[in-house]
Amino acid sequence: MAQRTYVKNLTTFDDKRIHFGFTLGINTVDFNFSHYFIVSDNPKFRPLPGSSDYPYYRDSTKVRADISTLIPGFTVAIVTNLRLNDNFDLRFLPGMSFGERKLVYNIPIIDVTANSTPLKSYSIKSTFLDFPVLFKYKAKRMNNQRPYVIAGAAYRIDISKSGKEDLVSLKPASASIETGVGWDTYLQFFRLSTELKFSFGLDNVLGASPSALGNNQVYSSAFSRLSSNMFILSFHFE
Question: What are the residue ranges in the chain where pLDDT is below 50?
Answer without folding.
Answer: none
